[in-house]
Amino acid sequence: MSEHDSNRRNAPGAALGRTLIIANPVAQSGAGKRIAGQLQRFLALYHHDNASFELVYTEHMGHAVELAEAARGYDSVLALGGDGVVHEVANGIMRIDAEHRPALGVVPVGSGNDFARTLGLDDYGGKDFARLLTCERVSLDVGRITYVPATGIEGAEPQGCGRAGRHRTPNPAESSPAPIPSNILPAGEITGTTNDTATEYFVQTLSFGLDAAVAIGTVDLRATVALTGAPLYLMSGAGVFLRSFRSYPARVSIDGGAAQELRTFLMAIQLGPTYGSGFLICPEADPADGCFDLCYASGKATRAHALALLLRAKNGHHLSSPLIHTATARHLELSFERDDYPIQADGERLRARSMTVDLLPGELTVLRPL
Fold this sequence. Notes:
The chain is of the alpha+beta class. The protein has two domains: 3-141, Rossmann fold (3-Layer(aba) Sandwich), CATH 3.40.50.10330; 143-362, Tumour Suppressor Smad4. 24% of the residues lie in helices and 30% in strands. It has eight helices and 17 strands. The chain has a seven-stranded antiparallel β-sheet, covered by helices on one side. Strands 13-12-11-8-15-16 form a six-stranded antiparallel β-sheet. A four-stranded parallel β-sheet has the order 2-1-3-4, sandwiched between helices. Helix 6 packs across helix 7.
């Protein structure tokens, strides 16, 4: 390679190539559209032989999935918005065959920004676009959820991929799990045998229980209060714990082991260390280490005790509680007692009666600022 070619490859922005920017205009109460315009003007000043940029806005729920899935032929797709648009864009990219799959980049403009936080990014606020031009391409793990959709729930929203583009009125895998009550079931008896299943991918977090209810509750709460980030999650959490504190019976099998009955008020399956806008639920989680990190609560807990545990998770201090157990895994099977359990994937509500969760190592190329 000549020195000239080497300089071209290493020039700022060379990692982006032909780039599609998918922006949620209503992200952060309308800031998404403003920041997308600022980004477009910034990129118009930048010239590189191997880079070009196109901007599109999401118009409805699930639109970012469609736009990203149609991005075959692009080198990169930037998701501008919160974790919802990142989740949708990642799902669209994962529907493209691996050979032609573009890289995922993030311009964080949301209330949570947990995946961006994992990449070492803060909320841009329109002030740090130059970091996009100094990215490296890295391979990260992806979680794949194959699930039997819940049925018979009145007012159920469409399954998965729900929030990006929603326009509101102003507004190592060998580890074993810690001991669980030992009603042992034969392995493989969790997931339904029906072929009527759906598939969803996640890049940061999958959880069920009270923590998922808190994440889901922030969606409607954002339309009524002027809060973002951790304060928004804390307000949602206070409401959830006051109104609907309970445990959730489930059956869980980890890495093909015998299924075990579990009563828990939270269970998180993590690729990145945080959820809920920076709560360190699995501080050691690494999206490039080839395994999920699990954290779940098992045992009797009062409402006050459970709330204290969730608050302590802000800094990872919940791990010292005897109620908290951790593990790593590459494959899980879960079955839920009822159809109405709160389940979230990257902050998006999922309605499922049973599911399998698989780790896809290094399947997603991501743009990470240097």
